[in-house]
Amino acid sequence: MLYMAPCPLALASVESRREKGRCRMQTLVRIALILFVVLCPICPSVAQIAPSADSGINTADTWVTANLSLNLNGTVTLPSAFYNPQTQVTSAVLPIASSTNFNMEAGYDANGGLVLNLYPTSGANAATSDTSLISVIRYAGGQMTMFDQSGNPISPVLPNASIPIPSPLAFLGSNPGSSILTSLVVPNIQTHANAVNAQIAYSGGNAIATLTAPPATSGNNVWSYALSGSNWVAQSFSTTTSTATSTATRSMVFSNVNWSDNAINDSARAAIPVTLTTAPPPSSAPLPTSLGTPPADAPNSLSATVNPASCGTNQYALGGPQNVVMVHGLNSTGCAWTRMANWLNQDFRFGTELIPQLPANAPLATQGQDLANDMLATGATGNI
Fold first, then answer.
1. Domain coordinates of the chain in residue numbers?
2. How many other CB atoms are found less than 10 A from the CB of residue 280?
């Protein structure tokens, strides 16, 4: 809090009048300081803070730095009630809440590639969360890497190889875009609202703008901007989604936003056409012929490649690059695969094709060992 000493109410002498003038000036300065402290969240930064020296960001290109708070709140309705030892309440509704704070810097490397660095900072749950073990989360060169407190890389292992690493632009709500600033620093708020199909509402004497846009799923996306000089600077972003059994709101709060814009490089990026490597098929496209239902006479029309004399273990050398093993189920035999194997061989040329016959009523451990022995006996590797 700033202390303001009172000025004398009546000063008669010339010296006193001078003192009165100085006192008024001091009062005005203090009032200005108070207004700056109160309004600083919507004031432009006096000096831009560049990315750190080891950020990997080319400071001659477009960049942005900010303090970022990520928050997640929601509920999940479970099939049955459970006892929560933390809340000591039995309920079918599971609350979800987390909050993490970061120092963020984003921009482009010397080759124009996207770079995003997130440095976890102290927060309400930093000491009890995984973020306390991480010094920086970095996206660069199309890859995401985490570093521990000693600077050693920790490569994240995703549960599915098909899950893509998120783009920094998507993280900041502007994917695709020609600039990391697309949704963070907006010169014309109405033009931006039209571009993202959002409704706009003003408050705070038209110094605050709120944009509400529908997301890809149910819920909404809400951006809040504050007027800073001739630009609108993002203050917060939240997205709300809901399903039949859950609701969730993820929010980001920005503060101390500093930036530098290289308009020439942004224009060059905007001029690069966005193309798809392979055009997606229409939603009404039929199944490929080779994967459709085989004709009724398919088993009789095919060559007798798979025509076992018995339902014991059978092995076929078909000359293809991919080896395959077809395992029957419990209380079954290898003959269960005869028709399917013929259908598959019509469209795919396998290498070694193994159809084992296991002791269907034996313990699973015995069946597993027999299967392993049959596979080893073929000498084939890389089996499907």
1. 63-156+239-270, 294-378
2. 7
Torsion of CA 198, 202, 203, 208, to 10 degrees: 70
Residues 6+ apart with CB under 8 A from 136: 117, 118, 119, 120, 146, 147
Give DSSP secondary structure letters for 35-58. Answer: HHHHHGGGSPPSSPPPPPTTS---
Q: What is the DSSP string of 91-142?
A: EEEEEEEEEEEEEEEEEE-TTS-EEEEEEEE--TTGGGSGGGGEEEEEEETT
Amino acid at the residue 282:
P
User: Locate tokens 């009172």: which residue?
Assistant: 6
Residue in the block written with tokens 């076992």:
308
Longest dimension (CA), the chain: 125
pLDDT means over runs of 10, the chain (384 residues):
38 44 44 36 45 91 91 87 82 86 90 88 51 78 80 68 56 64 90 87 92 67 92 91 84 92 89 56 47 41 52 83 88 82 81 88 85 91 90
Take residue 188 and report the two structure tokens written for it. 């014309």
